[in-house]
Amino acid sequence: MGLPNKEGRKSSGFFNSLKLVLLLGAVLIAGINIGNGQLSVSRIVSNVVNDKPEPVANGLPDKLNYDALDDVYQAVKANYNGKLTEAQIIEGLKHGIATSTEDPYTVYFSPKEAKEFNDQLNNSFAGIGARLSKDADDNLIIAEPIVGFPAEKAGLKKQDIIIEVDGAQTNNLTLDDAISKIRGPVGTKVVIKVVRDKSQTLDITVTRQTISLPSVETKILDGNIGYLEISSFSNDTVELTRKAAQDFKAANVKGVIIDVRNDPGGLLEASVDIASLWLPAGTKILEERRGSTVTESYVSRGGDILNGVPTVVLINEGSASASEILAGSLRDNKAARLIGTKTYGKGVVQQLINLRDGGQLKVTVASWYRPNGQNIDKKGIAPDDLVKISDADLKAEKDTQLQAAEAFLKK
Questions:
Q1: What pLDDT was estimated at residue 52?
Q2: How far apart are the first and last CA of the chain?
Q3: Total-model pTM
Q4: pLDDT of residue 29
C-alpha cells in the first residue's frame, strides 16, 4: 500500500516506514482492521518525512519528563491488587502515547497486532469470515457473512447487531477492540450474541478458521455487463483487476460495474493502478496535503484499456478511503457514475512505522483530496443516484443497487 519518488530511500535508523490511509472503524473481515486507504512502501529515518512540512506535534520536547509517569507507576506498584508485569506496563505506555493524540487513526500495534495487521493486508488471517461494520447508532454489526466460511455456516446474518463477544458487551468497545475479541487461534470457538431484526436475541457459536480470500471476484452479467467486486485493495488486487479488465475488453462488454460496497480500502498503489485502467496517463487521481501545502500528487499511469467503457461504481457507507479514492477519481474525471449511498468519509493519511521491537505505529501525517479539490473526511462521497436497500430488500435478498446499475448500463 511504493510511493512515487520515494522508492529506494535509504534508512539509517531503525524505523522502516509504510505510508497508509487507514480507517479505524470501517468494514473489517473479523480481524485487525486494514482500514481504508493506502499503504505504500518507502523508507525514512524517522516518523517525519524529511521533505515535508513539520507536523504540529514537532513542538513537543525532545525528551519526556518521566517523573509524573513514575509517580503513577510507583502508586500502581504499591497498591494494585492483581498480577501485572513490566512488559504489560510498557505495552500500555506505548498504546497510551498513541491514544493521547485523541485521533482515532493514530494507533500503536503490539508485535502480535502488527503480525495480524500484515496478515490482513495479505487477505489471510484467522477469523470467522464476516465483514464487520458500525451502524448509524454505533452498533457493531455483521455487514456481510462470507459464503462458505464459519460465520455464515453458523447462522450469522447480514445486519445482525453484535451485543456480546464471549460474554463481554460490545457497546463500549472500539471496532478494533471488538475485532480482537472475535479473532483467535484456528480451531477455537467464540460465542457471539446478536440481536436480529431488532427483536430476536441469539447466541451463536462460531469456530475460527484460517480465512484466505482473493480480493477480487468477477463475472459477466446478463446483457454483457462486466461485474467487478473488490473487497479490499490488497497485494493481489491489481493483477486480478487487470486480468478482469482484459477479459471484459475481449468480451466487448457493454459496460462495467465496479462494486466497492463494504470495501475498507488498502493499498495506495492498488487504488492508483486500478483507476489507471480507466483514466488516460497523467490524469489526476488525488493530492496529499499538509495544511495548504501539496506534498504528493498521484496521476494515472496509462494502460487505460477500459477508457470510454460506460462504468458504474457501487458505493455505500462501508466504502472507505482507497474505495473512495477510486470512486472519487473516476467520478471527477467523468469516467464513471456512482450509485448507492454516501461513502464512509475517510480523507486522512497515516504513516505506518515498523518499530525495532516488532511493533508498529500508525500515525496521521496528512490529508488527501479528490481531483475536484474536495477533502472527504467525515463527509463521504454522495452518489449520483441515491439507491437504498431496505430491510425488506435484505430479507428478500434483493440487491436494488446492483439492479439500478444494470438498468443504467442497459439504457
A1: 55
A2: 37
A3: 0.76
A4: 37
Return the bridge partners of 288, or none.
Answer: 296, 368
Per-residue CA distances from 223 to 87, 252, 332 (Å): 61, 11, 27
The CATH 2.30.42.10 portion of the chain extends over 125-212
Catalytic one among 263, 346, 362, 367? 346
CA-CA distance, 322 to 286, in Å (whole number)? 11
216-346+370-409: CATH superfamily: 2-enoyl-CoA Hydratase; Chain A, domain 1 (3.90.226.10)
Instruction: Give domain 125-212's CATH architecture.
Output: Roll (2.30)
Q: Which residue has the cell 469516467?
A: 335
User: Is-catalytic flag, 249?
Assistant: no
Cα(274)–Cα(269) distance, integer angstroms: 8
305-354 tens-digit pLDDT: 999 999 999 999 989 989 999 999 999 999 999 999 999 999 988 788 99
Of these residues, 321, 323, 329, 367, which one is catalytic?
321
- With b for 16 or more beta-carbon neighbours within 10 A and e for fewer, the 138-159 pattern comes to ebbbbbbbbeebbbbebebbbb
Question: 377 an active-site residue?
Answer: no
Q: Is 259 labeled as catalytic in the residue annotation?
A: no
What are the average pLDDT values for consecutive 10-residue runs of the chain, which has 411 residues?
Answer: 26 34 35 34 30 68 89 95 95 94 91 81 80 84 90 95 94 80 91 94 96 91 97 92 98 98 86 97 96 93 97 95 96 98 90 88 91 96 97 88 97 87
Secondary structure letter of residue 405 according to DSSP: H
Q: Do 324 and 355 touch, CB atoms closer than 8 A? A: no
Residues of the chain with CATH 3.90.226.10: 216-346+370-409
Place of cell 500515525: 363
340: amino acid identity, one letter: G
317: left (phi over 0), alpha (psi -120 to 50) or beta: alpha
Catalytic residue among 19, 276, 332, 362: 332
